[in-house]
Amino acid sequence: MIHTPRLVLRRVRETEDFGPMHAIMGQPRAMAYWSTPPHDSEDQTREWLANMAAIEPALGEDFIVEHEGRVIGKAGFYRFPDLGYLFDPAVWGQGFAREAVGAVIARGFDVHHLPRIQADVDPRNKASLRLLEWLGFTETHRQARTWLVGDEWCDSVYFVLTREDWDQRTA
């Protein structure tokens, strides 16, 4: 569990988190740059939560993000060192992603001793690109047609953050 000034990041509780996460993952706006289309069935979200819960600690660590007791998204590593996050559009622009993802990064370096963290982002997702750059990530390369989401091919921008760069940024 991670506590930040405004957030609690905790392990998934499949039954309790189903409703809020299904509501988020069913929104086209929330899922516009995710690796799957919006969830149109409860089974999709249940399977996604089950997979999140089944992550072996040696392979990854993913968190449900709460603000004032309300589930607002997720952030973490489905597989080390790949960073991922998703937030309810109702809370966009309030700095929650920066706070949560920053805490996950710090834990990745301090607890899991990752030498680097990587992320890939759809180049149309300007907010996510700004977030990663603000957190100190460096773009490494771009690639076309990396994700087939529904019937649309999407591109990727790849980023990396090393322990050294994080330490310099946070010193």
Describe the protein.
The chain is α+β, with helices and mostly antiparallel strands and 171 residues long. The protein has a single domain, classed as Aminopeptidase. The chain has helices at residues 14-25, 28-31, 42-53, 96-110, 126-134, 163-170, and strands spanning 2-3, 7-10, 61-67, 70-79, 82-87, 116-121, 138-149, 152-162. The strands form two sheets. It has a five-stranded antiparallel sheet, sandwiched between helices. It has a three-stranded antiparallel sheet with strand order 6-8-7. A hairpin with a 2-residue loop joins strand 7 (138-149) and strand 8 (152-162). Helix 1 packs across helix 3 (42-53).
Write down how many β-strands occur, each being a DSSP E stretch of 2 or more residues.
Answer: 8
Radius of gyration, taken over Cα atoms and rounded to an integer in Å: 15 Å
Estimated helix fraction:
25-40%
- CATH topology call: Aminopeptidase
How far apart are the termini?
24 Å
Query: What's the number of helices?
Result: 6
User: What is the CATH-assigned architecture?
Assistant: 3-Layer(aba) Sandwich
Uncertain spans = none
